[in-house]
Specification:
The complex is a heterodimer of chains A (127) and B (869). Chain A is 26% helix and 33% strand. Chain A has 3 helices and 6 strands; from the N terminus they run αβαβββββα. Chain A starts with a helix and ends with a helix. Chain A has helices at residues 3-25, 32-37, 122-125, and strands at 28-30, 43-49, 66-72, 77-82, 95-103, 106-115. By secondary structure, chain A is of the alpha/beta class. Chain A has a 5-stranded mixed β-barrel with strand order 2-3-4-6-5. Chain B is α+β, with helices and mostly antiparallel strands and 869 residues long. Among the domains of chain B are: 1-194, no CATH class; 464-592 and 834-869, no CATH class; 606-704 and 824-832; 707-820, no CATH class. In chain B, strands 5, 6, 7, 8, 9 and 10 form a 6-stranded antiparallel beta sheet that branches. In chain B, a hairpin with a 4-residue loop joins strand 16 (754-765) and strand 17 (770-773). The longest helix of chain B has 34 residues, at 835-868. The radius of gyration of chain B is 35 Å and the shape is globular. The chains are: A alpha/beta (127), B alpha+beta (869). At the A-B interface, helix 1, strand 1, strand 5, strand 6 and helix 3 of A face helix 16, helix 18, strand 10 and strand 23 of B.
Chain lengths: 127, 869
């Protein structure tokens, strides 16, 4: 066997190791009940804004705390505490992904992704 | 359906455009067949060339027609309606052109045509036919992406020349349906215009550069396929070398420009966010860099012929794959780039598969096996279409293709038998290319998580920026070390002692420098308090930093001592220094960035774990001043220009006497984008050794009054006061100074029913300046007619309503201007240290690559001349 093959195999092994380890560590999409079952794990929860509940953001008191209620795709409602400022256009979001973990019955998120109704597609939406 | 004669439709243009579309597709196909045949029979060459020129002409025709309809505002065409309008400045016409998918495909096709023409002119030898036939085949595919014809129910491509009322996406839109009855609908159209977020110079320069980069992965690919086809595995590599480095240069510039755009104008909070769209341009670049380096090895020594083919082909296939990733909509919410599905998913997958099929079958040097492979693949495709189980059949095909590749490599591919020496340049360069390929595959794997979720029905979330950094840094460290070491080794065999003697100075110096810098940067304060993962992060930063310095020193040393400072020979070394500077700059500016807007009132949430800081935003009221890092920061107010809200943020520094002095003003903005909602756009103050980045994360845009309402006043409030009392306004203290009876008794009696008293009000603002107002109290024919007075400077309006002689008090109402109410922003400010190192590195790398290309072209010319004579 050539030296280059040996080195090559080592590098491939490392790369596979990287992929496998990262797989173990990355968070997964889940619903609130799963997140509730594993309070220490980080999850991505997809859902919709519960519009009947109040949005609480008082930057004067804390610019990095925004509280709202999310209904996940299974219909479970939970209070979400986002430890960031309130995102622009939050009210208009159609779908929300919160990233974080369950803590004392509330979902604490360190990041948020929103899908806003894009006017790009307004032709398609009518189809 | 009855036909209506629509007024003002320029149907001829669409017909012309569609004619060019079909011509470009057909001519590319004929050129492909022609060049294919001329590989065996030179007689077809002239015919094939003519077809390719015709294709080039047709592509120019398409572009011309598109510009014509955009410039003349033919809004009956969906593309014009969607991407432009009358209000838009003409300088954005290029941006409109490539904002849409069809336009960007066309831009890509255009660059391919230009490169193809140059390549065809420069290749007056045996390579012309095979290389150009691959080129033409790629053009067949690309042209079909914008063909927009139907075969049965299947639409092939999406034409930019569709009328709005015929466009499949809008067929059922109510406003389009209403056109059907209105022959004069064009005058009622309301074009959408270019997305305002894209109205900047980046949108003018970035896409053409990036697409030229994508296009320039085609020549190395075409050469590699031609090599497999002609079974001349080595000869093409020297000719392809300058082309490959041209691709490295342009694609590299395109990627860095994307980073600069993100840093300057988008709210990513940095220049690299590992967004899928960024990754999918980085990955082909990494592979192309690998290909270029193996080509150099092969030119000087030979040996890793298979790897060059693998890398040169891989780079182009990865461009196709990333096109699929970013344009099929499969990434969903994993990317900020808003690409929508044009229904071309199937087409894109098909192209990737066809090219894989082509490569594998060319490698199989046994006609029976080759035919069985091709037939088997087609059979699997039909099985999938008829019976389903597409995912499983796809795996079968992938495994079969990989197996056959390995088999053919073993059996048919020429291999170098003598082993590479450990102390040889080729060994380490080859290893470097290999690490580049693997890092590219790891990044591709991470980026493809949404695709893998679909294939395996898993629910993995996309990777976070920190995780990307964590997993790619080790690769970067290895690559940097290889870049430092490899040049000091000679091809074939190097004297070990000599090598160590040459490299040891740079090595020791860089370790010393690395330790000296890293200890205060990473270890002194942070290390002992960090947990395991952070400890590893800090160690990896130290290693990356030291390896970067090692690369910089070793390559500079190589330039000076070995190359004796000859610039024309130093291209590679300069480019290596540039690459290392980019990584070092990225490392320092990112790992040592300082959040200036530390939110002290926030709850401590670190206990929740990794990623929870919750202290990055600060609340700032208009007129307030808060300390932020070394600065005092105040928010002056906002200004609305068009759809943009500019927030004026003043940074003060204390001067020698301790008095704050204005250091600079930043104007981050929020765009109230009618298409995509509100988008924040940061503003950055650049210093030589640091940048101050400022970004408004939340603000109440509604308190902004548009100019029409600017002079409106809030509801007045009543105050009962004695002389000498005060009224508090939001921006001033108002003192009731004195009362003046304006009319003499005589006048009063003469007018009999008139009483007029003036109250003198003195308003003191924050700076102690005094303003006066004199509202009047008038009684005429038993009616109170107050005459109000304003202080324009303070936005205050006073009316004098009543005099109570018994109490000796007066009743005054005060109204404040609407925009007197306190406005606020929530902002984030970050200091990025030494980010200029990154930009200097970018320029250095581009310059080095450019020098290397020039040198390669020169040696190629000498080589050809020697062969010719």
């Amino acid at each position: 066997m050539k030296k280059i093959h040996i080195v090559g195999i080592i590098v491939i092994a490392v790369a596979i190791g990287v992929i496998l380890t990262s797989l173990k560590n990355t968070s997964t999409y889940a619903d609130f009940n799963e997140a509730l079952a594993n309070p220490d794990r980080e999850y991505h929860v997809v859902g919709k804004l519960q519009k009947s509940q109040p949005l609480i953001y008082d930057p004067k008191i804390n610019a990095d705390e925004f509280i709202f209620t999310l209904i996940d795709n299974k219909g479970v409602e939970k209070k979400v505490v986002l430890h960031k400022s309130k995102p622009q256009d939050f009210e208009r979001s159609e779908q929300i992904v919160v990233i974080g973990k369950m803590h004392e019955g509330e979902f604490h998120a360190n990041d948020i992704l929103m899908k806003c109704p894009s006017k790009y597609n307004d032709g398609k939406q009518t189809m | 359906m009855h036909s209506i004669n629509y007024i003002g439709e320029h149907a001829w243009l669409g017909k012309l455009g569609n004619f060019f579309l079909i011509l470009s597709f057909a001519a590319a196909f004929i050129a492909f067949v022609g060049f294919f045949l001329s590989a065996k029979n030179k007689d077809y060459l002239k015919f094939a060339r003519t077809a390719f020129y015709l294709h080039a002409f047709a592509v120019i025709g398409i572009i011309g027609s598109m510009f014509f309809m955009l410039m003349n505002h033919y809004y009956e065409y969906q593309y014009v309606w969607q991407h432009s309008n009358n209000d838009m400045p003409m300088r954005y016409i290029l941006s409109c052109f490539w904002e849409g998918q069809e336009g960007s495909f066309l831009l890509w096709t255009f660059w391919n045509v230009i490169l193809g023409l140059i390549l065809q002119r420069s290749l007056k030898n045996e390579w012309e036919a095979p290389v150009m036939s691959v080129f033409s085949l790629a053009q067949v595919f690309l042209s079909s992406m914008i063909l927009g014809i139907f075969i049965g129910d299947i639409r092939i491509g999406s034409s930019p020349f569709l009328l709005l009322r015929e466009h499949p996406d809008f067929l059922n839109a109510p406003f389009v349906k209403s056109f059907m009855e209105n022959p004069n609908y064009i005058s009622k159209l309301n074009p959408k215009g270019l997305n305002p977020l894209l109205m900047n110079y980046w949108m003018t320069i970035h896409p053409p550069t990036l697409f030229l980069g994508f296009a320039s992965t085609l020549p190395p690919f075409a050469f590699a396929i031609a090599g497999l086809w002609m079974k001349k595995y080595k000869e093409w590599q020297q000719i392809a070398l300058p082309w490959t480095y041209f691709g490295i240069l342009i694609l590299g510039i395109g990627i860095l420009m994307g980073g600069a755009w993100a840093y300057e104008a988008l709210s990513f909070g940095g220049f690299w966010a590992w967004d899928p769209v960024e990754n999918s341009s980085l990955v082909p670049w990494l592979v192309l860099v690998g290909a270029g380096h193996v080509m150099i090895v092969n030119k000087n020594k030979g040996g890793s012929l298979f790897t060059t083919h693998l890398l040169a082909i891989g780079s182009f296939l990865l461009v196709l794959y990333s096109t699929f990733l970013t344009r099929s909509g499969i990434l969903g919410d994993a990317s900020v780039h808003a690409f929508t599905d044009l229904g071309m998913q199937g087409q894109l997958i098909l192209y990737v598969l066809v090219f894989v099929l082509l490569c594998v079958s060319l490698l199989i040097d046994n006609s029976l096996l080759r035919v069985s492979y091709l037939m088997g693949s087609v059979l699997l495709m039909f099985l999938g279409m008829i019976y389903g189980y597409k995912t499983y059949l796809f795996y079968v095909w992938v495994i079969a293709s990989i197996g056959l590749t390995a088999y053919s490599y073993q059996k048919y591919f020429p291999k170098e038998n003598d082993e590479e020496e450990l102390y040889s340049r080729e060994f380490w360069m080859f290893l470097g290319a290999f690490v580049l390929l693997l890092s590219a595959l790891v990044i591709t794997y991470f980026t493809s998580i949404p695709v893998l979720n679909k294939l395996f029905h898993t629910k993995k979330a996309p990777l976070k920026v920190d995780d990307y950094n964590l997993w790619t840094v080790p690769f970067a460290i290895i690559i940097l070390i290889l870049m430092a070491v490899a040049q000091f080794l000679k091809y074939k065999k190097t004297n070990k002692k000599e090598f160590l003697k040459k490299i040891i100075i740079s090595f020791l110096l860089s370790v010393a420098f690395g330790v000296a810098c890293s200890v205060p940067l990473y270890f002194l304060n942070n290390f002992s308090t960090s947990d395991g993962l952070h400890k590893w992060n800090l160690i990896s930063y130290f290693l990356l930093f030291t390896a970067g310095i090692f690369t910089i020193l070793a390559n500079s040393d190589y330039c000076v001592r070995i190359l004796k400072g000859k610039v024309s020979k130093s291209g590679a070394s300069i480019a290596h220094v540039g690459f290392a500077l980019i990584l070092v700059g990225a490392l320092i500016s990112n790992s040592k960035k300082v959040i200036l807007s530390k939110n002290t009132s926030a709850k401590k949430v670190e206990s929740l774990g990794e990623g929870f800081s919750g202290q990055e935003n600060i609340f700032l009221e208009q007129g307030d001043t808060l300390p932020m890092g070394p600065y005092l920061v105040s928010y002056e107010g906002k200004e609305k220009r068009g759809i943009d809200f500019y927030f004026k943020v003043n940074y003060f520094l204390k001067n020698a006497s301790g008095k704050p002095e204005l250091a600079f003003q930043l104007q981050p903005k929020i765009q109230d984008n009618p298409r995509m909602g509100r988008a924040a756009d940061p503003d950055t103050k650049h210093f030589l050794n640091r940048d101050i980045y400022t970004h408004v994360t939340a603000a109440d845009l509604n308190t902004v009054v548009d100019t029409a309402k600017k002079n409106a006043y809030n509801t007045p409030e009543n105050y009962i006061r004695h002389l000498g009392d005060t009224i508090l306004a939001s921006n001033a203290i108002v003192v009731i100074d004195s009362l003046v009876s304006d009319l003499s008794q005589a006048e009063y009696e003469k007018n009999d029913s008139l009483l007029q008293v003036t109250v003198v009000l003195k308003a003191y603002n924050v700076n102690g300046e005094v303003f006066k107002a004199r509202p009047k109290y008038i009684i005429k024919k038993n009616m109170v007619i107050p005459e109000s007075d304003k202080i324009e400077e303070l936005g205050l309006k006073f009316s004098f309503w009543k005099i109570n002689p018994q109490e000796g008090s007066v009743e005054i109402s005060m109204a404040e201007k609407v925009n007197n109410s306190k406005d606020f922003i929530v902002m984030k400010a970050v200091m990025f240290p030494y980010i200029n190192v990154l930009w200097i590195g970018s320029i250095t790398m581009a310059l080095g690559t450019f020098i290397a290309i020039r040198e390669r072209k020169r040696t190629l010319k000498i080589h050809e001349e020697n062969h010719g004579s």
